[in-house]
Amino acid sequence: MYDGKLLLSIARTSLTDYFASCCDGPEAGGGRYGSFVTLRKGGALRGCIGYMSAVDELYPQTYRLAREAAFQDWRFEPVRKEELGSILIEVSVLSPMKEIAGLDDFCPGRDGILMSLGTRRAVFLPEVAKETGWSKSELLSALSRKAGLPADAYKSPDCSFMTFTSEVFNEV
């Protein structure tokens, strides 16, 4: 099992180690789970990277994802050292993915969702619905656009969906 406070500490240490030119993260621990590390600054998204399923033990995976969220999220400039004090970290630990028969089985806010259509894919964590206040159709339209598809692509009979839940740990 994993410890949420330890996950946050590992993510924070990863960022401070980066600027101190250290690179020794935890070697193992926490079990095997999909996870995301989200960075926020002033309430706004500053980076978010994750894996839908485990690629490593959770603790070393979190160490690596914190750096990827800070320095490799293509949507944002890399985090600068002087920003570290104003960056808040969130770690989401995912449940196993579950294929659903249709969108009636998807509950925004409780479930995260992965949409696939052809070679296009996009995901929203369960927290996205809570943070944005979007309706189910607004969320699915945004998910379609995130996948680089038209806003109504989620209605295609060729579209497939998987859901999951997450346990979220935040720095306060």
Describe the protein.
- The protein has 172 residues and is of the alpha+beta class.
- The chain folds into two domains: 4-94, Glycoprotein, Type 4 Pilin; 98-165, Hypothetical protein ph0010, domain 2 (Dna Ligase, domain 1, 2-Layer Sandwich).
- 28% of the residues lie in helices and 27% in strands.
- It has four helices and eight strands.
- It has a four-stranded antiparallel beta sheet, with helices on one face. Strands 4-7-5-6 form a four-stranded antiparallel beta sheet.
- It is globular and about 50 Å long.
Tags for this entry?
single chain; 172 residues; alpha+beta; Glycoprotein, Type 4 Pilin; Dna Ligase, domain 1; 4-stranded antiparallel beta sheet; 28% helix
Number of strands: 8
N-to-C order of helices and strands: HEEHEEEEHHEE
Strand-residue proportion: 25-35%
Low-pLDDT runs of 5+ residues are: none
Envelope shape? globular
Structural class by helix and strand composition:
alpha+beta
CATH architecture type of the largest domain: 2-Layer Sandwich
Secondary structure layout:
Elements: H1 4-19, E1 35-41, E2 44-51, H2 58-71, E3 87-94, E4 98-99, E5 112-117, E6 120-124, H3 126-132, H4 136-146, E7 160-164, E8 166-170
Antiparallel strand pairs: 1-2, 1-3, 3-8, 4-7, 5-6, 5-7
